[in-house]
Design goal:
This protein is α/β, with parallel strands linked by helices and 376 residues long. The protein is 41% helix and 11% strand. The strands form 3 sheets. The protein has a 5-stranded parallel β-sheet with strand order 2-7-1-8-9, with helices on both faces. Strands 3-6 form a two-stranded antiparallel sheet. A two-stranded antiparallel ribbon has the order 4-5. Helix 4 crosses helix 5. The radius of gyration is 21 Å and the shape is globular. It starts with 37 loop residues before the first helix and ends in a 15-residue tail after the last strand.
C-alpha cells in the first residue's frame, strides 16, 4: 500500500529515457510479427485472445495477432520484472502476465492517448481502487515499470502516505473517543486531504525537466506502530515531465451513503461517512480514469493479510499475531460492507464511460473467467 518508487529508475529522481511506445491500438504494420515467428507464437496469440479482460481493455483479437511482437517483447520484460522465467512460466504466472497485467497496461496507454487527444495539459491521473492484500501494490509497481521503460514518465502515490500526522491522529481519536473506527489510521477522516490534493496537483503540473515535486512518505512503524509522517527530507522527488500518475488506495472512489444505511452496517460508521463526503471534491475530481479491482468477499482481506504476516515472520521480520491481524482488518470491514456494493454496481464517485475499468479477481488474485458487466 505504500507509495512505490522503483529502484531501477533511481526512485524517479532521474528523467527516464524515452523509448518506443507500445500500444495495440496505434501500432502500425511496422511492428507486425516478423516472418518465421508466426508459427512459434501462434499458440501464445490464441492464449492471449482468450483472456477474460481483453475486450474490457479495448483490445481486439485482431490487434493481438497484428501486434504479437510487441506483446511478446513486453511479456518478456514483465516476466523479468516479476522474476519469472518467461519461457517456462507456470499457468498462474502466464495468466498474470498475459491475461492481467499486460491488458491493463495497454488500457492505461489507451487512456493516456485519449487524454492527450482531448487537449488536456496536465498529466493523466488514474485512480486505482482495490482492497488491501489483493495485489494492488504489485500491479501498480509493474505498471509503473512498464510505462517508464516504454517512454511514459509515470509517478505513483498512495492514499496511505497522506495519513494525518501522529499528533493530529491522536487529536482526532480524542475528539471521537467513542468511535473505534477513528482511533487509528485507515478510514475516511484519518487523511490529510489538503496534503493529498496539493501533491496530486503538483504531480499533474510537472510539464518540463526543470519541474519537480516531492512525494510524502508515511512511516507506519513510528510511535510503536501508531505511525507518523516521515521527515520531508526523506521524501522522494519526482522530476517532470510526468505523463501519468497512478493514485492508489483501498477506499478510493467510495461514495458516501444516507446516514440510515450506514447506521445499519455499523453505528460507528456514521462519523466516517460524514468525513467521506469531502473526498470526492478534494481528491476524486482530479482523477481522469478509474481502475477498480473487485473481489467476491471482503473476508479474503483477512486471509491475504495473514499470508503476508506469515511470510514476514518466516523471513525473520517482525509481524503481527493472528489476533492483531484480526483487530487490524476489523477496522476496515464496516467500510467494505457499506461501500463496496455501490462501488461495484455504479463505479467510483467520478467514473465516466470509456474511462472506467472494473476487473473482478478471485481468491488467488487472478481475473475471474466471467467478468461483471460494465457499469457505465
Amino acid at each position: 500500500m505504500e507509495t512505490q518508487v522503483l529502484e531501477t529508475q533511481q526512485s524517479l529522481m532521474l528523467r527516464p529515457k524515452r523509448a518506443r511506445r507500445h500500444s495495440p491500438q496505434v501500432l502500425t504494420g511496422a511492428m507486425s510479427v516478423p516472418a518465421g515467428t508466426t508459427d512459434l507464437n501462434s499458440g501464445l496469440a490464441e492464449y492471449i485472445t482468450k483472456g477474460p479482460i481483453l475486450a474490457r481493455c479495448g483490445i481486439s483479437p485482431e490487434s493481438v495477432h497484428t501486434n504479437l511482437t510487441s506483446w511478446v517483447q513486453l511479456g518478456e520484460q514483465l516476466a523479468k520484472q516479476l522474476g519469472f522465467n518467461h519461457d517456462n512460466m507456470d499457468a498462474v504466472q502466464k495468466l498474470r502476465v498475459y491475461h492481467y497485467y499486460l491488458p491493463v497496461y495497454f488500457w492505461c496507454t489507451q487512456q493516456l492517448r485519449l487524454h492527450k487527444e482531448s487537449g488536456a495539459k496536465t498529466a493523466l491521473v488514474v485512480g486505482i481502487s482495490a482492497p488491501q492484500g489483493c495485489g494492488k501494490s504489485t500491479l501498480v509497481e509493474q505498471l509503473q515499470a512498464l510505462l517508464i521503460s516504454n517512454g511514459h514518465n509515470a509517478a505513483n502515490v498512495s492514499i496511505d502516505d497522506f495519513y494525518l500526522r501522529f499528533q493530529d491522529q491522536s487529536k482526532l481519536a480524542a475528539e471521537h473517543s467513542s468511535n473505534p473506527l477513528l482511533q487509528y489510521r485507515g478510514n475516511a477522516g484519518t487523511h490529510d486531504l489538503e496534503l493529498g490534493a496539493q501533491t496530486l496537483q503538483r504531480l499533474r503540473d510537472l510539464h518540463s525537466p526543470s519541474d519537480s515535486a516531492s512525494v510524502p512518505r508515511y512511516d507506519k512503524s513510528a510511535n510503536g506502530g501508531r505511525g507518523d509522517r516521515a521527515d520531508p527530507s526523506t521524501w522522494p522527488k519526482v522530476n517532470g515531465p510526468v505523463d501519468i500518475v497512478l493514485f492508489e488506495g483501498w477506499m478510493s472512489g467510495f461514495s458516501p451513503l444516507p446516514e440510515e444505511e450506514v447506521k445499519k452496517v455499523d453505528p460507528s460508521l456514521v462519523g466516517v461517512n460524514a468525513f467521506l463526503k469531502a473526498y470526492r471534491h478534494v481528491w476524486d475530481e482530479m482523477v481522469d480514469s478509474w481502475l477498480v479491482i473487485q473481489i467476491g468477499d471482503p473476508q479474503w482481506v483477512f486471509k491475504w493479510r495473514l499470508q503476508a504476516e506469515e511470510g514476514m515472520r518466516a523471513s525473520g521480520k517482525p509481524g503481527m499475531s493472528d489476533d492483531q491481524i484480526a483487530d487490524f482488518v476489523a477496522r476496515f470491514m464496516p467500510a467494505y460492507k457499506a461501500y463496496l456494493p455501490q462501488l461495484y454496481s455504479k463505479g467510483p464517485t467520478t467514473a465516466r464511460p470509456n474511462h472506467t475499468l472494473i476487473i473482478e479477481v478471485d481468491e488467488q488474485r487472478s481475473p475471474m473467467a466471467n467478468q461483471p458487466q460494465p457499469v457505465l
